[in-house]
Amino acid sequence: MVRPRVRKILADLWGNRMRSLLVIASITVGLFAIGVIATLHRVMTEDLRLGYAAANPPNIRIVAAPFDQGLVDHLKKVEGVRQAEGLRGFDARLESRPGEWIGIEFKAVPQDETRQIAQVRLVEGKWPPGDREVVIEQYKIADVNAQIGEWITIELPSGKRRPLKVVGVVSDQTVGAFASGPGFFLAPVQGYVNQETVEWLQQDLPYTYNMLYITVDGDSNDETRLWEVANRVRDEMEHAGGTVINIAVRGSYDHPNRRYLEALAIVLVLLGFLIVFLSGFLITNTMQAIIQQQIQQIGILKTLGSRRYQIILLYMGLILVFGAIAALTAAPLAYRVAFQRVVPLAKTINMAYRGPRFLPHVILLQVGMGLLVPQLAALAPILQGSRISVREALSGVRESQQGRRGWFDRMILRLRGFSRPTLISIRNTFRRKGRLLLTLTTLSLGGAIFIATFNVQVSMDRYVDMVSRYFLADVNLTLARPERVLEINQVLSDLPGVAYVEAWGTARSEMILPDGATGENVQLLAPPVDSRLVDPVMIEGRWVKSGDQNAIVLNERFMSDFPNLRVGDVLRLRLNGKETDWIIVGYFQLAGRSSGLLAYTSRESLLRVINQPDKAMTYRIVAEGKDLSKEEQEALGRAIEARMAARGIRVLDVTTGSYLSSSAAQGFAALTGFLLFLASLTALVGSIGLTGAMSLNVMERTREIGILRAIGATNRILLKLILTEGMLIGFLSWIIAVLAAFPISKLLSDSISQALFGNPSTLAYTPTGFLLWLGAVLILSALASILPARNAARLTIREVLAYE
Amino acid sequence: MDSPALPDRQPIIRARQVVKVYPAGGRPVQALKGVNLDVYAGEFVAIQGKSGAGKTTLVQILTGVDRLTGGEVWVDGAALHRFDENQLAFWRGRNVGVIFQSFYLMPTLSILDNVVLPIDLCGDYHPRRSRELALELLRQVGLEEHAYKLPSQISGGQQQRVAIARALANDPPLIIADEPTGRLDSVNAENIFQIFQSLVNGGKTVLMVTHDEGLASRASRRLILADGEIVADDFVPISVSEATNKTDD
Ligand SMILES: Nc1ncnc2c1ncn2[C@@H]1O[C@H](COP(=O)(O)OP(=O)(O)OP(=O)(O)O)[C@@H](O)[C@H]1O
Ligand SMILES: [Mg+2]
C-alpha cells in the first residue's frame, strides 16, 4: 500500500501530465546533449589513440638506398629495437577517369604478409594482394573511381602503363604519419601490392627494400628516446655500408590526426560545459515554476501538520522521479545518436572506430546529473517554498513579493498608449522579475550558444578559404626529372589558355638539431621571390622578399614542436647531403599543426644552396580565365599533359589547384560538419527550454485567464494577451542572446584555433545564426504560449477558478 | 474584557493580550488589539463580527497558522507563542482540526486519501487501520460511497464534509473552522452545523467563525469581534451550557 503522501506525488505527476512532460523534457534534453557529447569525447579520444596503437605503428621510419633482409636482421640486434621490418615504397600515377591522372603511393608487402608493424585492417575484399592485384586504402577510395574486381591503369615514372586489379579495401592507420607535407589530408591514394607485382611493374632491384620500419622497446612515446634509437640504427646501417636518406620518428599513440581531434575535443568540452550550465538554468527555472504552483498545497500540507522536512522530502522525491525518468529516456537516446554520429567522423579522420559499446561512466554521468542537478536546481525554491508561512501559502501570494515597487514597476505602471490587454501582458511579463530573469537567462544562453556555433562555422570556412591562398595556380605540374625552365615555360606558354607559368623549387631536407643530431624531415617549397601564386597568412614576422639571403618562413607546426625557435633565429637543414643555415624571417599559417614541417624560401636561395643550373621539376600554371571551375582546371591539366607527351617530356604528376586546396582543407571540413551537428544539438536544448519556460509561464496564468474570461474577455483578446507576453519574452531573450553570442563565439573559435594552429583566431560573423534564432524564438514562443493558453481557454470558468 | 474562569477547570484555549500587526507595506494594520479569551473543553463557540473585524486573524493565531505579534496563547497546555513553525505544524496536525471556507482539499488525491493524509503526516500511520478509520469518518459525514472520487467530482457541501472528516483524522480534541458554511447554501450549511453539533456532543471543543445569525445563535457561546477586539461574549459556565443543551435536545 502506497502512502497517501507518496500517492500525492504520483498523482501530481499524472494529474498534470502536460507540466510533468515539460519538466521531464527539459531535463531529458540536457542529459541527452551531455550524454552525446561525453560519448563522442570518450569514444573519439580513446579510439583514435588505441586504434592507432593497435595497428602497431612504426616508431621510426628510415628511408634508405636499397638494402636487403640481411641488413634488417642485423639491425634487429641494435639496442632499443623491438621489431624491424624492411619494405618497399614507390610513387606512381593512376588513371581515375579517362585521361585523368592522380598520384598513388605504393607499398610492397611480402607474399605471405607476415608483417607485424603497421598492420592494416581489411574492410572489404581480400588481403594480402596476389600477383598483379592491388589493395587500396579506404580513405581516398572514392578518388580511385573503381570497384573491387575492376581494373585500374597505373603509369610508372618511366611512362610505362600497367593494369592492376583492385581486390580489396583496407584501413591503414599510418597514412600521413610520416609525410612531411600537409599530413594525412594531403596524402595521395595508398595502394598495396606484393613483391611479384613490384617486379612486374619494372621497379629497380625488386626484391630489396628502401624503407625500414622500427618499433622500440620500452617507452615508445618519448621522442628523445626514439631519436636515440634511430641514430644508433643509422650509425649501424651506415657502418654496414647502407645509405640513409632520411629518418622520422613517431610515438605509438600519436595518430597523425591527433591535433584535429584535440580541436574537436576542446569544442566538445566547452559546449558540454555550456550545455550543463544551460540545463542547470533550464531545470532551475522549471523547478521554480513547479514549486510556485504548489505553494498553496504546501500551505494545506502544513495546516494538516506537515513539518518542513516532510515537505522538503516530498518535493525532492517528486523531482527524483522526474530526474530518473529523464535519465532513463536520455541515456539510450544519447547512446544511439552519438554512435551514429561517430561513424562518418571516424571515416574522415581515419579513426579505427571500435564500434558502439557500453560506456559505464557516461551512463553514470547522465544518471548522476539527472538525479543531482534537478535537486540542486530545486533546492532554493523548495527551501523557500517550505519556509513560507502557512497563512501566506494558503493565500497563494507571498507578501514579500507584494507592496514594494521599484522604479521599474513604477515606469511600467506609467506606460501609456497601449490597449488595456497589451498593458496587462506587459505588466504580467515583468511581474515576477526573479522568474523572468531566470527564463531570460536560460533562453539567452541557449540562443547565444546556437548563434555562436554558426559564427565559429563561418570562421572555419574562412580557414578553408585561406588554405586556397597557397594554391592559387590552376594546375600544378611535376615532371619526372628537372627540365630547363626556359624550355618548359616556352612549351607551356604556347598552349592556348595558359596565362602565366612559375617554376617552383622543391626539396626534402632534414632538420639538424642544436646538438648536431638529425631531426625530422622538412618539406621545402621555393617559389620565385616575386611569386604571384602564394598569398600567405602570416602569424608572425614576414614572408620572404627579394634581397633576402637564405631566408625561410616556417609553418605553424614548427611553433608547436619547437616553441623556442623564434623569428631571427637560425635553422640548420641538411639538403642534398649538405648542411646549410637558414634565417627564420616569419611564421605562416596553413593547414594546421597536424600537417608536417613545411617551409617556404625563395627559388633563388634554394638554387644557390643546391647549386643547380636553371632547371625545375615543378611548375605552377595559371589559366587565362579567372576563377576556373574544377572541371575547367582538369581540362587544362589534360591539355598540358598531352602537350608534354607530344614533346616527349615525362610527367610525374598533374594536379589541379582546387584538388590540392580541398584536400588540405578536408580536416576543417570535418570540423565544420561537426559544428553544425553541435549547433543543432544546442538548438534542441534551447528550443525545448524555450517551450518549457513559456508553457509553464502560461500555465501559471490559468487562473487569471479564467478570471478575465469571467469578466468577458473573448478568445481573441486572451490569445493576443498571451501571445504578446510570450513574444515579448522571446524577443528580449533574443536581444540578450545576440550580445552574449559575441564572447561565446570568440571563446569557441579561439579554442579551436589554438588547438589547430596554436594561435588565437580571427573571428568571422554571420547573420545566419542570429536570424535563424530570431525566427526560432518567435515561432517557438508563439507556439509554446498558444498551446497551454488554448487549454486554459477551453476550461470552463468553474474549472479554472478551482485550478491549482 | 476577561472571561471569568472556573476555579476547578483549566481552559483548553487561553489567550492573553494577543496582538497581531500586519506590516502591509509600510502602513501597519493592527488586526488584533489585545484579545483575551478562555475556552473550556466541550464548548461550542461561534465567532461573529463584521468583515475585517479580525475573525480570520484570531482563528489563524489560535490554530498556529500564523504567528502573533504580542501576547501569549496556550492551547491544551501548549505555549504556542514559544513554538517555532515546525513545532506548530506537528502540534496542529495532532491536536487541532482546521477547516476553511474554501475547503482546500488536495485536488489530485482521492477523497479517502485526503482523509488519510494527516495521519500519514503526523499520526500513527498504518496502511490498513488508517484506511478503515478514514472510511469510518467518511461514513460519519455520509460520504462513504464517494471515497474513491476526486474532490472535483463532488459538490461543495460534500467537499466541506470531506474537510471535516480530514480534520478529525488524528482525533484532535479541538476543531476550529473559519466560515465553514460561507460558500454553502442553507441546506448544506445546516448539514455541516449538525455534524459540528454531534462532535460537541461527542466531547470535542468546536470554534466556528460564521456570518449566519441563525447558526450562531444555536452555539453554546457567542463571541463578537469588532475592530480587533472582543466586544461581546455570552460566556456561561460549562455546566450551565451543558444543562441548556440537554434541555434543547
Ligand atoms: N495579509 C494581510 N496584510 C495586511 N492586512 C491584513 C492581512 N490580512 C488581513 N488584514 C487586515 O486585518 C484586518 C482583519 O482581517 P481578517 O481577515 O482577520 O478579518 P475577518 O474578520 O476575517 O473579515 P471577513 O469577515 O471579511 O473574513 C482587516 O483590516 C484586514 O484588512
Ligand atoms: Mg475572514
Describe the 3D structure:
The complex is a heterodimer of chains A (804) and B (249). Chain A has 23 helices and 20 strands. With 804 residues, chain A is of the alpha+beta class. Chain A has four domains: 1-56 and 277-399, no CATH class; 58-249, no CATH class; 405-472 and 658-804, no CATH class; 475-627, no CATH class. In chain A, strand 16 (570-575) and strand 17 (578-588) form a beta hairpin. In chain A, helix 7 runs parallel beside helix 9, helix 7 runs antiparallel to helix 13 (433-468) and helix 7 packs parallel to helix 19 (666-700). Chain A is elongated. Chain A starts with a helix and ends with a helix. Chain B has 249 residues and is of the alpha/beta class. Chain B is built from eight helices and ten strands. Chain B has a six-stranded mixed β-sheet with strand order 6-7-8-3-9-10, with helices on both faces. In chain B, helix 3 (111-122) packs parallel to helix 5. The A-B interface holds A 1, 3-5, 7-8, 11-12, 14-16, 296-297, 299-310, 387, 389-391, 394, 399, 402-404, 799, 802, 804 and B 23-26, 60, 63, 65-67, 85-86, 89-94, 98, 100, 104-109, 113-114, 116-118, 120-122, 125, 127-128, 131, 152, 166, 170. The complex binds adenosine-5'-triphosphate and magnesium ion (MG).
